[in-house]
Amino acid sequence: xxxxxxxxxxxxxxxxxxxxxxxxxxxxxxxxxxxxxxxxxxxxxxxxxxxxxxxxxxxxxxxxxxxxxxxxxxxxxxxxxxxxxxxxxxxxxxxxxxxxxxxxxxxxxxxxxxxxxxxxxxxxxxxxxxxxxxxxxxxxxxxxxxxxxxxxxxxxxxxxxxxxxxxxxxxxxxxxxxxxxxxxxxxxxxxxxxxxxxxxxxxxxxxxxxxxxxxxxxxxxxxxxxxxxxxxxxxxxxxxxxxxxxxxxxxxxxxxxxxxxxxxxxxxxxxxxxxxxxxxxxxxxxxxxxxxxxxxxxxxxxxxxxxxxxxxxxxxxxxxxxxxxxxxxxxxxxxxxxxxxxxxxxxxxxxxxxxxxxxxxxxxxxxxxxxxxxxxxxxxxxxxxxxxxxxxxxxxxxxxxxxxxxxxxxxxxxxxxxxxxxxxxxxxxxxxxxxxxxxxxxxxxxxxxxxxxxxxxxxxxxxxxxxxxxxxxxxxxxxxxxxxxxxxxxxxxxxxxxxxxxxxxxxxxxxxxxxxxxxxxxxxxxxxxxxxxxxxxxxxxxxxxxxxxxxxxxxxxxxxxxxxxxxxxxxxxxxxxxxxxxxxxxxxxxx
Amino acid sequence: xxxxxxxxxxxxxxxxxxxxxxxxxxxxxxxxxxxxxxxxxxxxxxxxxxxxxxxxxxxxxxxxxxxxxxxxxxxxxxxxxxxxxxxxxxxxxxxxxxxxxxxxxxxxxxxxxxxxxxxxxxx
Lengths: 591, 123
What we know:
heterodimer, A: mainly alpha, two-stranded parallel sheet, 13 helices, 2 strands, B: four-stranded mixed beta sheet, three-stranded antiparallel beta sheet, 12 strands
């Protein structure tokens, strides 16, 4: 699928190239007929002209493409088609026709002069012929540039509409395009070019033919002059006729393009104005134009936008006023008496309901009393539970204290055991030394040595026992630590239980208070309901009195009805007036 | 050390160190002392990285101290067993003889010779 605006930058500048080719053909044809080329110089002129035309067209196209760079970037997807980017592209497109005009005009004039000079150097032609070649280029340049402008303009207009379709609101485009009030000057210039171009060429051609005839007659014999004149006349008439026809065609086409360029936007403006007059409104379409026509198009779009902004709320207001008036009339038409009768019936129903409410209130009062008794019983139980939890907490605390004391005692025993172990160790060493000394003493110390050995065994036995006791103390220490932690956890649990019991007790206390208040409130309701029943009976009597008064005010209502009818008529007229303006949405208004 | 005419030896301190057995003449032991870091551990002679336990006993002979795992005094005379020539330089020449006590073979090491060897080595 082809992307929007893709390739449009090339498409827009093609007409200027086409106009240059037309101008070139016209110049070559004229030069062929009007100039007596020296022998062997035509080919060199064609080569120089062709090369220069190609170079100049390439350079001119480069200028135009540089101007259209914003459009090209959007078409190639290099920049996103946001509103500022689209507006920049639209400005570039709108300025290209004028740019093409000046580029064609300048480059053809410069190209003609350059061609004449280069050709003169290459082919060594006389200066007069070089000047005539340059003159032809200067004479052809304006009409060629005009043709380029008008053709490019015909393509720029639909391209601007494509940019609007790509997402640029027409109102924003109208505001963003520069407006210039130069239509009169442009028409004068176009008319001057259209008139001067054929005039200049025909004068030049006549002078050239006259010079040629004079040259022929100057060297002719007297008796052959008539026949030579006829011959010259016959030789020159058909090329001249053809050349004049070609020039006239080009000028006519330019004039037709100029007229249609001016007329097309005016026709669209007329159609849009007619649509506006018929009351068909919507998002104003973009009418592509130039100069004053563009300003008129923008002004008309502004008027349509402004009118649309006024008509939409006005239509809503008319509709709202009509419906309100209808509702007012309908409301006014309904009888107040009926409403009062309905109110009377409602009051009777209210009286019946009051009796039932009184009975229900009595029943609810009994329930509230029962709830109060139950809540009081629950509060007593919660208080008992709280006391039990406090007792458990005290017991747990006592256990924890006992275990801590036991742990301290065990640690003291451990220290004593360590002391005994140290003594046994030293005793073992002493006994060992005694056994050694007894052994050294020989037979004399044998008895001493035996006693010492026995003492040593006892000391070792004590050490084994103390180590066993130490191990047991370690186990007791671990167990008492675990017991301490367990009793601490028990204390915390009983604290939490006590807090919960306290909370439950407080909640039950509140329930007791609420139940007490409910019981009192139910008794008050029962009393109030009885009073309400009496008041309702009095209300029924009052409603009957109001009903009678309402019948008396029916005459005043008739006058109000007349005034409301008048207001309804006014609202209907306003709505009809507004409905003649058909407000279309953009979607509906799209062709 | 008391050597009888029949080459018997009596009064030995039987030591256990690093799972090995070692006998020392009781006459060469001046006293037993509680464990100390300065004493050389006899078990290190069999296994270089062996360390003395906390309840080790220390044997003192003049300036020389030797730490062992466990000791007992053996008073019964036992026959001296000669040291093979291949083992004559063991323990720095301090190996005196072998004895059989309670059905086990024990090397008898002289603390006197051991102390003298240390002194010569120090010189």
